[in-house]
Structure prediction request, 331 residues.
Amino acid sequence: MTARATPLMRNLLLASLTVLVLAAPVPAQEPVRWIVGSEHLRVLYWPQHDDLARLARETGEQALGRLRRLLNAKPAGRIDVYIVRSQAEFEELAGAKQSTWVVGLALLGRRTILLKPVGPQRLPKLLAHELAHIMLDVSMGPAARSIPRWLHEGIAQYAAHQWGRAQARTVARAALGNKLLTLDELDAAFAGKEDQVDLAYAESYTLVSYLASLRPGLGIAPLLDEIKKGRDVRTALGRAYRMPVSEIEQEWLEQTRTGYLSATLPPPSQMIVGGLFLLAFGVALILVRRRSARIRRRMEEEERMRRLMMNVRLIRDDAEPPDGGPDRSDE
Prediction:
């Protein structure tokens, strides 16, 4: 005889299975990247970086507008901007190991930018810097392979207005130590230690800024036009600015050597405080010396009076007769 489940038993069995399913642990789901986009940018990021992503979208479009005018180029499709959350993710997307102090990277062939989550004050210039690399690559086409590292980095910093007191101090210290990099040494310095890399970046900016001043209104465009024609950088420099390269280098280094020494001075507020301290010290020194002079004069006067009184006593003693009764006369 086969037992059959009653409706009550079936309901109890279903309820038990439901409780077991609800009680089973649910595996945690990995959060997915969020995306915000604009006409020329697509920003991919993690939820905790939402404010930075929206700032990147806004300021990135503004930077692209400036770069289109500067380099006469338009983005080829959208540019992907990744805001990463770790060094491991940064290296995974880059496809190679990266130094920990690298906070931004432009992958030119992929039209992709990698950013670490720097603060909102720093992010706009960092993004503009990396966008300049991509836009320069778009503008130059096949000739982009001929652009030296110093020119790429110098233009990117110049376009992003990345110059401050820290860079000026870096250049000033090198100038004081007679350690400024020459034109031929710049590219190799980017593969050096961190202090050499900092100097290479700073000097690249000063060189591009100097070249832009040689032909106002044209800026760096004449040099890029010559490189597009297939000329090497030294030949392109001479033809673009109608000067011997040795003269260009000498004038640039001289301006760099003398133009940033003020950066080694303390900030104006400290100079004012220091000046007031010296002034107060000088006044105090004068007052102390005057007081010392008055005391010295008083002591000298007291010593003079003491000697005078001694002399008076001596004269008086000489004038009085010796003791022994009155004088007698012969009778």
About this structure: The radius of gyration is 41 Å. The mean pLDDT is 83. Residues 268-319 form the longest helix (52 residues).
